[in-house]
Amino acid sequence: EEEEGEEEITFVHMSEDERRENGVILSLVEEQVLTETINAPGEVRENSYTSSQTTSRISGQIIDRHVKMGDRVVKGQKLVTILSVEMAEAQAQEIIESDDASLASGLFDLYSMMSGTILQDDFVVGQFVEAGELLMKIANEESIWVEAQLPPNKASGIEVGAIAEIIGDQAQIQGKVIQVHHIVDEESRTMSVRAEFDNNLDNFHSGEFVNIAIQTGESSKALAVFQDSLTILYGEEVVFKLEGEELHPVAVQTGRSLGGWTEILSGIRQGDQIVSSQIFLIKSLILKSKIGDDD
């Protein structure tokens, strides 16, 4: 790599192979669809409408478990075997009618009410459980909820059905707002907004914290670049534009920043190639060159 100076602003010479070695990625400047959005932190939760709880109607002792947390189960699959005095007494009545002593074992099984993943199983074999005590929680994680807490003035502007997007470290998925709560939390003074997402690829899990972007306005087209492509150099907002095998800082005038994009009003044109990764590396090389020139 070589750096050449030209008064204050210099450029970085970097061939295609050198860019590849340094992880420098280029993006084409194009028109993008910009939409007014509200960004907020949210928490992934299981979809209560595709979840179930496993409990026993009578008390008893857990004799065996047939699945464990994290297992995927299907509807009707055996989950737990319980020994109960109440069950033995009920079975005794059948013995009188059928003359079959094996019916009075006191044993019975609990079965899954739905297909899904075991998210909770807080019990051990040998434990005595009361009627109604939660033994397992099962959820179909192909559909998840994200709960976002927003100030009332922002939450009130969100409509049911609005497009929402989870912005995660490894994946982004799109869904829609299904509920806007009308009660303000007494402690946080926020309102809850719930969005539903398809999670077929199992990218997100209950309890995970994510960022969520919710559309609140109309969409429009504009010349825009990734927000991360912009940086401040010598007091100006710039992008690094490819010219031959040289990366030049170009001052730009910016407009709106929406959904991870920033509108470009002037400075670069549609079809230009700019750096969209390793921005700090390019900037540091230019600053290093400037310091060397000053010395």
Strand order of the largest sheet: 4-13-16-15-14-17
Largest sheet: 6 strands, antiparallel, barrel
Strand content: over 45%
The computed structural class is mainly beta
Assembly state here? single chain
Secondary-structure element string: EEHEEEEEEHEEEEEHEEEEEEEEEEH
| Radius of gyration based on Cα positions | 30 Å
Average per-residue pLDDT, rounded, comes to 88
Counted beta strands: 23
Taking pLDDT < 50 over at least 5 consecutive residues as the criterion, the unreliable ranges are 1-7
Word description of this protein:
This protein is mainly beta. Helices cover 14% and strands 48% of the residues. The strands form five sheets. It has a six-stranded antiparallel beta barrel with strand order 4-13-16-15-14-17. Strands 1-2-20-19-18 form a five-stranded antiparallel β-sheet, covered by helices on one side. A four-stranded antiparallel β-sheet has the order 5-12-10-7, with no helix packed on it. Strand 18 (231-233) and strand 19 form a beta hairpin.
Quick structural summary:
By secondary structure, the protein is mainly beta.
Secondary-structure map with pairings?
Layout: E1 2-4, E2 11-13, H1 16-21, E3 26-28, E4 30-46, E5 51-55, E6 60-65, E7 72-73, E8 78-83, H2 85-98, E9 107-111, E10 116-120, E11 128-129, E12 134-139, E13 143-150, H3 152-155, E14 163-167, E15 172-180, E16 191-198, E17 209-226, E18 231-233, E19 236-243, E20 246-251, E21 253-258, E22 261-266, E23 273-275, H4 279-294
